[in-house]
Amino acid sequence: MEEKFELAQNLEQLKWGFPKPTIVVESASAAAFKGIEEEQYYRRMYLMCGKDDIYVVNKKYPIDSDYSAYLKNVLGVELPTFLELEFPSPQSSLTTSMIADHYHNGNGKENTYDLIDLFIASGCKLQFFEVTQDEVEFANHFGNPTYSKNLSNYFNIGTKPGFKSFCFENNIPTPSGSVCHDIDELLTVASEIGPELIIKASEGTGGEDFGSNVSIHVPEDLNGKNLKTIIEKKLLLLKPNTFPIIVEKKLQLPEGSLHFFINESGQIIFEPTVFNQIAKNYSYVGGFYPNHLPQEVVTLANIIAQENIIPALIEIGATGFHCLDFLYDEKTNLIFFIEDNTRPGALDIVDHFVKNVISANNLGYQYSWFHLLVPLSELGITGGVSFGELEKIIKDPMIPGQNFVLISSPDILPFGFSLLLTGISCGKDASIQQAKTIHQLAVNKLKNYYGKKLEGGDSYDY
To answer: What is the mean pLDDT of residues 261-280?
Structure first.
């Protein structure tokens, strides 16, 4: 398939980033991640920050010094100011730690709120990675200096029930299903739209791997009593498993994602962009650019965004970053929106990071990238690994050039999770296949080093 590229005289025009100096609080606040050390240590958004931004860091989870040196000295990337804060007794997330610090030390003693207030007074905006009730409380203390005019509505749209209702109210195509408020309502809907169902937690994230979604197969001859037993057992796997809960028809279709940014005045700062998204068990694992979606799907997604989604978001004040996941049918070119991640999407961060490195190294304006999470277990790595060690093994492919790779989050490596690896291809011959090839080269070097026998072939089909 012929590659279609964004072209600009200056790549700065295409970067995502933040339109104003911004304080970034990358708090893993979702129910599935709260209180889990590995998730609180998992950070990406500082790759989207510029030199005028401030990135809040819990001193318990310091920024990897080898990675900072790699960003500055090898990639030529400008870093934000890191605001390192220390909390006597860290809470379940960065946001809750800051809130607790304020209430525990608010009697005349300087605390995190005082520091944040100084930056906001100087004109800084406030940006979160996830928005829950904790972030709404935190932002409202300062008069809501976020990019969202109505943060409560922004939070609601980011919940599964809120987005499903938003789709119904604004004629936005979405899989058949319903917002259920009790077990009896859920059973009724499930019996009507089965046999293949997916049940979604209200504020879940991370797909089936993290308990955000649960798949259910309902046999045609199943009676009501047995259906209730099956669903009640499945509900125990959800995080959180409290109502309201979404139940909808499970569609086995490929995914795409639609990304845009609306400022608090209702202006579209970053035009809607469609990425191919790679998903496993309804969980994001990667993506690539430029997209290979049928042009009819891309056109339809943009029409729905411009005519239905964006005007409705502006009307309720739910401005800010939006990353909407959708399923598409390659036979009919129909699309079905499934959720709105009310934050900069993972692919926004990757795309900005790639553009930033290409721009800093004068590698031109034509490029492709292929991004995929690679479980460390597949590389033969057990018990975690440091970024510095991986850099020494991969070596030359990590140096910017016509084809190279980027590691976009070293923070989960020590915990033995995944390697976030992006292959980049630049120049007139740039292609996704070239980006995949350099990505696979880096993976193979790691597999060979750690003694894992290669199983042959390229497993990253898209």
So the answer is: 86
User: 454: how many CB neighbours lie within 10 A of its CB?
Assistant: 9
Residue pLDDT, tens place only, 302-337: 999 999 999 999 999 999 999 999 999 989 989 999
First-last CA distance in the chain = 12
Write out the two tokens for 431: 């292609």
421 C-beta neighbours (distance < 10 Å), count? 24
Measured distance CA(204)–CA(242) in Å, rounded: 11
Percent of the chain residues past pLDDT 70, beyond the cut: 88
Q: Pairing state of beta strands 255-262 and 268-280? A: antiparallel
Q: Can you give the C-alpha Rg of the chain in angstroms?
A: 22
Tokens encoding 211: 């308990």
Q: Which of these, 186, 209, 217, 157, lies nearest to 337 by C-alpha position?
A: 157
Partners of 419 in the beta sheet?
374
Give the integer Cα–Cα distance in Å for 154 and 322.
9
Amino acid at 399: I
The domains located in the chain, with CATH, are 17-148 (no CATH), 176-249 (3.30.1490.20), 252-341 (3.30.470.20), 346-449 (3.30.70)
For residue 406, give Cα distances in angstroms to 50, 66, 201, 362. Answer: 18, 14, 33, 16
Q: Are 364 and 85 in contact (CB under 8 A)?
A: no
SS3 string, the chain, reads: CCCCCCCCCCHHHHCCCCCCCEEEECCCCCCCCCCCHHHHCCCCHHHHCCCCCEEEEECCCCCCHHHHHHHHHHCCCCCCEEEEECCCCCCCCHHHHHHHHHHHCCCCCCCHHHHHHHHHHCCCEEEECCCCHHHHHHHHHCCCCECCCCHHHHHHHCCHHHHHHHHHHCCCCCCCEEEECCHHHHHHHHHHHCCEEEEECCCCCCHHHHCCEEEEECCCCCCHHHHHHHHHHHHCCCCCCCCCEEEEECCCCCEEEEEEEECCCCCEEEEEEEEEEEEECCEEEEEEECCCCCHHHHHHHHHHHHHHHHHHHHHCCCCEEEEEEEEECCCCCCEEEEEEECCCCHHHHHHHHHHHHHHHCCCCCCEEEEEEEEEHHHHCCCCCCCHHHHHHHHCHHHCCCCEEEEECCCCCHHHCCEEEEEEEEECCCCCHHHHHHHHHHHHHHHHHHCCCCCCCCCCCCC
| Residue pair 405/422 in contact by the 8 Å Cβ criterion | yes
Tens digits of residue pLDDT in 388-400:
999 999 999 999 9
Which residue do the tokens 């492709």 mark?
368
